[in-house]
Amino acid sequence: MDQSLRQRLIGMVEDSRRLRAVLAADGSLFQGYNEQLRNLHNSHAKALADIVDAQGWPGKSKAGEDGAAAAWMIVQQAIGLPRFMRACLEVLEAAAAKGDAPRWQVALLTDRICWLEGRPQVYGTQFDWDDKGELSPVPIADEATVEARRALCDLIPLAEGIRQRRAEAQQNGETAPPPAEAASRRRDFDDWAKAIGWRS
């Protein structure tokens, strides 16, 4: 295992967490994609791309479990870079097939890309505020069979996942936007996703 690689990856994620906490505290985290956060995410993505180009996916054999989890989190946060996220999904899938990455990481990244592309997600891991002001999964393809798909990727049952995500949001001080603001937020997000290249 490469300890310097592990520490570098973990350090990048810790930087993002610190900035996110500051932005959540002043409310700016929930007003579109904050420019400062976007720049940090893009910088981390570039660093990870260089690592992947040089030595392949930094899975648990190279970066330890926590370092590999940090690499996955960097990809999850790189929402402004569609090609990067899609390319990383392919590399991550190959790593998972060899046992060097957990299947749940593939599931969450798959869902995140589906959501960004405006398609129903596969595993029910991506959430947004619904019309009732509750944090709920965004649309799921073939929802009747989602539990079987989640089980194959070592994910907890959906109902438990919903409870867990809502508790996490409450702990982090995330609150539902007012209905008019929520509708405006969705329109802004759609416009952003098209401008970035996630959607046509």
For the biggest sheet, the summary is: 2 strands, antiparallel
Unreliable residue runs: none
Question: Regarding quaternary structure, how should these chains be classified?
Answer: single chain
**What percent strand?**
under 5%
Give a structural overview.
The protein has 200 residues and is mainly alpha-helical. The chain contains eight helices and two strands; from the N terminus they run H-H-H-H-H-E-E-H-H-H. It has a two-stranded antiparallel ribbon with strand order 1-2. Helix 1 (3-26) packs antiparallel against helix 2 (35-55). The longest helix has 24 residues, at 3-26. The termini are far apart.
Short description:
With 200 residues, the protein is mainly α.
Notable characteristics:
66% helix; mainly alpha
Structural topology:
Layout: H1 3-26, H2 35-55, H3 60-77, H4 82-97, H5 103-117, E1 127-129, E2 135-137, H6 146-152, H7 158-171, H8 179-196
Antiparallel strand pairs: 1-2
Helix pairs in contact: 1-2, 1-3, 2-3, 3-5, 4-5
